[in-house]
Amino acid sequence: MDELELLKKDWQKQDNSYPKLSYDDIYKMILKKSSSIVKWIFIISIIEFVFWSFISVAFRDTESMKHFRELHGENILVPIAIIGFGILIYFFIAFFKNYKRISVTDSAKALMENILKTRRTVKQYVAFNIIYLIVCFIAALFIEFDKNQELNDHLSQASANGEIFKFYAIFFATVFIALVLLIGVFLLFYWLVYGILLKGLNRNYKELKKLEI
Amino acid sequence: MSKELEHSFVKLLEENQNIVHKVCRLYTNNQQAHNDLFQEITIQLWKAYPKFRGDSKFSTWMYRVGLNTAITLYRKSKRRVNTQEFDMVQFKIKSEPYDDTEEQQLKLMYQAVHQLNDIEKALVFLYLEDKDYREISETLGISEVNARVKMNRIKTKLKTILNP
């Protein structure tokens, strides 16, 4: 006889051997809070949205921004800010739409796909922000070099002293470190959500996908 | 949510709780983890209950929510890794007087099933519950043909685990 058939016979005989929870036990359970990954994904995603929105707002009112306004950089910075805000709205709506679609009564595969899609939206938003910040950075540099008289004076002085190489080296090292820090924050989120929360889900999703080949 | 809804849900779950216990039995290794998963499945069932239309049987619907919670939503904690021999011990399962070899073989089979991955366990679970391939394929979201193919592979895999 097939081993699995033997197991099935035994499995079906055991209906009386499971614990019996009372009405009250079960009632108490429905009052408790869920600790499912969907709940965690929701919380972490909201944190990511808030974090990146905060970053862009925080940058807006700093001294350096006032400095840019004095340099008449609005022509570049205002459109960038408007585009940034529009994209935030777009991602937020997409995130909620996907989140609403997650249903525990779907098939296992559809459920996993909807969860992954929801996460992907947030991931794209974070990636967008990294690119957005880099673009702002480059725009700021462009304005500085183009319009900041003080900087240009420094440059000509450094060049006169034969220190132009040192000047650029320090300058670009600073830019490089800032970028590394940014990408570090991105990777931290990535590791947090994908590494811890979605490891099992990704593995099971791959297993289901494999069945279709 | 209304008291009436609560009452009808708790009543239904009380009657059908074995399904949840069986899912927990397959996907956990110790009592604590069993209770945690039972708790989470109960919450997920309760959250989804207002949308339960009754166009399928409550039990059929439970299989889906229970497995989805075990495979996808439930976060296994590393703390819960435990080597305790779970089956037979935990439920103090009284077997009918099998002959020794059969009992031994069953014990090995349960251990082998525990070694399968989450998706394979889901297939085996539905198979043990006597579900047909149509229901298995709908629950997991794969085609019927693929479900059959996978089931055959699992049988081979179980054989290999049992007779290395």
Shape of chain A: elongated
How many distinct beta strands of chain B? 0
SS content category of chain B: mainly alpha
CATH superfamily of the largest domain in chain B: RNA polymerase sigma factor, region 2, helix turn helix motif
Tally of discrete structural domains of chain B: 2
Q: What is the CATH topology assignment of the largest domain in chain B? A: Rna Polymerase Sigma Factor, Chain: A
The biggest sheet of chain B amounts to: none
Name of the CATH first level of the largest domain in chain B: Mainly Alpha
Annotated CATH architecture of the largest domain in chain B: Orthogonal Bundle
Mean pLDDT of chain A: 84
Beta-strand proportion of chain A: under 5%
- Tell me the greatest interface: A-B, 51 and 70 residues
Radius of gyration of chain A: 27 Å
Order of helices and strands of chain B: HHHHHHH
Strand content of chain B: under 5%
Per DSSP, the total helix count of chain A is: 9
The gross shape of chain B turns out to be globular
Say how many strands of chain A there are: 0
Low-pLDDT runs of 5+ residues of chain B are 79-90
- Span between N and C termini of chain B? 54 Å
Report on this model:
- The complex is a heterodimer of chains A (213) and B (164).
- Chain A has helices at 3-13, 23-30, 37-60, 63-70, 74-101, 108-147, 149-160, 164-197, 199-210.
- By secondary structure, chain A is an all-alpha fold.
- The longest helix of chain A is centred in the middle third of the chain and has 40 residues, at 108-147.
- In chain B, 68% of the residues lie in helices and 0% in strands.
- Chain B folds into two domains: 1-83, Orthogonal Bundle (Rna Polymerase Sigma Factor, Chain: A), CATH 1.10.1740; 95-164, Arc Repressor Mutant, subunit A.
- Chain B is built from seven helices and no strands.
- Chain B is globular, with a radius of gyration of 17 Å.
- Mean pLDDT of chain B is 85; it is low at 79-90.
- The chains are: A mainly alpha (213), B mainly alpha (164).
- At the A-B interface, helix 1, helix 2, helix 3, helix 6 and helix 9 of A face helix 1, helix 2, helix 3, helix 4 and helix 5 of B.
